[in-house]
Design goal:
The chain is built from 15 helices and four strands. By secondary structure, it is an all-alpha fold.
């Protein structure tokens, strides 16, 4: 698939992000309401806006997807400083909990769930893996990525989820899947079991009778669940497909035990079932993507809408075809129409901060261009799957 050229909207959005990076390398939420220490919300020019992990992740990821790396591009310095901030946050975090930051009750956490920072940290550190400017920074980034992955593996629930807390935690499920599968594709060690459980949960949320996804954890907004589950399943299936050749070698290896063969046969059966289900779920969802009511989400644009558009854009771009082209043309025109004059995007409900909304809107407009995230790992980068952390 040919890569899309950068639009004027993308150029302006990237410039906005670069201008609002804080001295320590992170990004704050960029205005909007905050949770007050005494309860309730506060908002205004005099309210502190400290850097946080989630907003730094999406801002850095947008720059990376626009092909600015820690070594190359006009925003290379912004990327380096953003990644350094994130690595330091993960390094300072404990080993056992699902958190990578001590900051609590942020706007993004309250809406997507308390572990969203960890989901996003895995995603952006995996995207930057192999692109750092020197051996030491590459080592630190790799260690931080492995630590964040272990946190997700250790804290996944038996049903394949991580948390039911937050306004629309289903959105976080899609982010976790994105991070873990991107990490696997970049050569990091990620448990087969964790990926399979992630896919199975999303598959279980589809109702064959109504041909829709469950409203569980969606805040009653079908866009959120559909986008998150389609994305989670597509990405985890791709990760499993990348392992299929190795699994089949086990079946052909005379030294393989009966237990190993049985396990591999189960994995292959699950993969075939997942592929069949995904094809059905994608086909039945195409009509919804053209429905203005469905696409409007909560009714106005918030960070959750932009993030859902990103999930759908990246999923459709991977598949390609007329459905992707029609969606991309329509959603890009809408985002360009609502962009602010300074290059930012603003949320009008829930996640309203300009950093998150701008970065996720850019990721929608950049879908189909982020070549590094689509490139399969080279053979020398391949890593054996890791046993589930206990």
């Amino acid at each position: 698939m040919d890569q899309k050229p950068h639009s004027e909207a993308v150029t302006k959005g990237l410039a906005y992000l670069s201008l609002h990076q804080q001295p320590e390398g992170g990004w704050g939420q960029g205005g909007g309401w905050r949770s007050a220490a005494a309860g309730g919300r506060v908002e205004g020019e005099n309210v502190p806006d400290p850097a946080d992990v989630a907003n730094t992740c999406v801002a850095t990821l947008a720059l990376l997807h626009a092909e600015h790396t820690p070594r190359h591009g006009a925003y290379a310095d912004n990327v380096r400083r953003g990644l350094d901030y994130l690595v330091r946050q993960v390094e300072q975090a404990d080993e056992e909990s699902p958190y990578v930051t001590e900051l609590r009750d942020t706007q993004v956490q309250s809406k997507i769930g308390p572990y969203v920072d960890t989901f996003l940290a895995v995603d952006v550190l995996a995207e930057a893996k192999g692109q750092m400017p020197d051996d030491e920074s590459e080592r630190r980034l790799g260690a931080a990525l492995d630590k964040a992955i272990r946190k997700l593996e250790r804290n996944q629930q038996k049903d394949g989820t991580w948390t039911r807390r937050g306004w629309a935690p289903v959105v976080g499920h899609g982010l976790a899947a994105s991070g873990l599968t991107r990490a696997r594709r970049k050569g990091a060690r990620v448990s087969d079991e964790v990926l399979e459980q992630t896919e199975k949960y999303s598959r279980s949320q589809y109702d064959d009778t109504t041909q829709t996804f469950s409203a569980v954890d969606t805040a009653g907004v079908p866009l959120y669940g559909t986008a998150s589950h389609l994305s989670a399943k597509a990405r985890t299936i791709q990760a499993m497909q990348a392992q299929e050749a190795e699994w089949r070698k086990t079946l052909l290896d005379a030294a393989s035990s009966a237990e190993e063969r049985t396990l591999v046969e189960q994995k292959l059966q699950n993969l075939r079932e997942a592929e069949t289900a995904q094809e059905q779920h994608m086909s039945s969802s195409y009509a919804y993507l053209q429905d203005p009511g469905f696409r409007q989400g909560f009714g106005t644009n918030g960070g959750e809408e932009f993030l859902s558009y990103m999930n759908l854009s990246e999923t459709l771009a991977e598949k390609g075809g007329p459905e992707w082209e029609q969606w991309d043309q329509s959603i890009s025109a809408n985002l360009e129409r609502v962009q602010n004059g300074d290059g930012s995007w603003t949320g009008h409900h829930c996640i309203t901060g300009r950093t998150f909304c701008t970065a996720t809107a850019l990721l929608v407009l950049l879908a189909g261009r982020a070549a590094s995230s689509r490139t399969p790992q080279a053979p020398h980068e391949a890593a054996a799957p890791q046993a589930r952390a206990l």
